[in-house]
């Protein structure tokens, strides 16, 4: 069994749908990705900030599994990691890790980055109309109602930075589960 890893890292200083792939990102405790539009202690997502700008920022870091991007590409969507204007706005693309199946409070450790950056998962990305504008038909692929009636969200997960450090493509990811009982990720 292989260790989960980072496939790509991205950031954008302004609110754009896709982010620019960079060689490394710096995570800052309590804030998020340095030089990224979503960094901050309070909410930075434009629609959430319009509702209550003093809310805590539970969306400091957006992580998405490479496997989802690969699946979507196989369904005809021109989406990939590491390509500007062809990704879903993620900061960290992982490989070998079912992010959506992890419970809230899971900590992802990136030990290769000097001080050992740590991101704590807060919830599922709530995909909105921007995904549909980006690629028509994509919203139905990443947010739909299952046969049992529950809403399935597959647009990645969100987290907060609890320990700062550098994260690069190729870094390993260590998973630390929270104490029991586990609570599944909900939309944030």
Write a structural description:
Pfam families: MOSC (PF03473). It comes from Mytilinidion resinicola. Residues 20-176 form the MOSC domain. The protein is an alpha+beta fold and 188 residues long. β7 (107-110) and β8 form a beta hairpin. It has an eight-stranded mixed β-sheet. The chain is globular, with a radius of gyration of 15 Å. It has helices at residues 46-51, 66-74, 129-134, 138-142; strands spanning 5-11, 20-22, 24-28, 32-33, 61-65, 92-95, 107-110, 117-124, 143-145, 151-153, 157-163, 165-168, 174-176. The protein has a single domain (5-176), classed as PK beta-barrel domain-like (M1 Pyruvate Kinase, Domain 3), CATH 2.40.33.
What's the short story on this structure?
The protein is 14% helix and 31% strand. The chain has 188 residues and is of the alpha+beta class.
């Amino acid at each position: 069994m292989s260790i989960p890893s980072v496939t790509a890292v991205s950031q954008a200083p302004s609110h754009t749908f896709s982010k620019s792939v960079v060689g490394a990102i710096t995570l800052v405790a309590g804030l998020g990705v340095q030089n990224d539009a979503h960094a901050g202690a309070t909410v930075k997502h434009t629609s959430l900030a319009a509702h209550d700008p003093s809310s805590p920022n539970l969306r400091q870091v957006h992580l998405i599994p490479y496997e989802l991007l690969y699946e979507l590409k196989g369904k005809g969507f021109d989406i990939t990691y590491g390509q500007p204007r062809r990704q879903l706005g993620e900061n960290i693309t992982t490989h070998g890790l079912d992010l959506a199946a992890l419970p809230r409070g899971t900590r992802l450790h990136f030990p290769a980055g000097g001080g050992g950056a740590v991101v704590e998962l807060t919830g599922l990305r709530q995909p909105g109309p921007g995904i549909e504008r980006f690629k028509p038909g994509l919203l139905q692929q990443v947010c739909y109602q299952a046969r049992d009636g529950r809403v399935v969200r597959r647009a990645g997960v969100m987290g907060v930075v609890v320990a700062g450090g550098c994260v690069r493509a190729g870094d390993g990811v260590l998973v630390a589960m929270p104490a029991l009982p586990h609570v599944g990720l909900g939309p944030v």
